[in-house]
Amino acid sequence: xxxxxxxxxxxxxxxxxxxxxxxxxxxGLVKLAFGAWVRGATWVVRTTVNTSTDIARDLANGExxxxxxxxQTSELRTIALRALGMREDNGDQPAPRPAPTxxxxxxxxxxxxxxxxxxxxxxxxxxxxxxxxxxxxxxxLTPDEARILRYIFMKGPQPSIDIRTxxxxxxxxxxxxxxxxxxxxxxxxxxxxRIHPYxxxxxxxxxxxxxxxxxPPHRYQLIEAQPKTTAVMKQAGRxxxxxxxxxxxxxxxxxxxxxxxxxxxxxxxxxxDADDDGQA
Length: 280
Fold this sequence. Notes:
The chain has helices at residues 3-9, 12-24, 28-47, 49-60, 65-84, 106-121, 133-139, 143-155, 183-187, 195-204, 221-224, 227-235, 251-260; strands at residues 158-164, 175-180, 208-211, 241-249. It is an alpha+beta fold and 280 residues long. 52% of the residues lie in helices and 9% in strands. Strands 2-1-4-3 form a 4-stranded antiparallel sheet. Residues 84-109 are annotated as: Disordered. InterPro entries: Abi_alpha (IPR025506). Pfam families: Abi_alpha.
């Protein structure tokens, strides 16, 4: 047979023509079964040229259709049934979900990590310059939050006030405004109105603490004179109660700032006791 004919036999379209002729020439139940197989496997035959070529070649060489089916169907049938979600042994039943791949217990992995840490702690040659969490913390900070950390690091604890309604003996007193401060303004934050989410995140990371300790009284005066503060005072009604608090770095936060945040050229040195209002 010529090369042109052989090339044509290798084409998927020619393959389907031969398969169709065999189906039409096959009587009775064999024809029905083979036709059903062809319909179910057409999508596979069209996308699997090598398998189609084998089928066409076997049929063209005169092999009985049943033999061809037994020879080539197994893999195609498996693929088709899996694609349809059916079981191979019973086509009308959904295939069972594959058993989950056994996973290593997280506890085992954690125990291995703990063992490795203890091994390194016993090695006098092993040194760590900074805490390994610092890199992850930096990724969780916004630029404004970095400014806040640097400012508190340089200027020390910052004044913060809570405003409550005034009730006899404090019974039934309601908190109207909490954590009012001027940190964002002094730190030079781009988004001053986001100071509370910023401080919440810094506290979550263990860098900032909210303390009941007070700073020098005169440092609260500027906060109390701010329009946002006077508006909250009006909401609290007559003679609102003002509670003085402070916001400061944790020891961990101080270490973090020392290791990660540059302070050269910031404009002022770090005092032991910050008693001024500061400038950005």
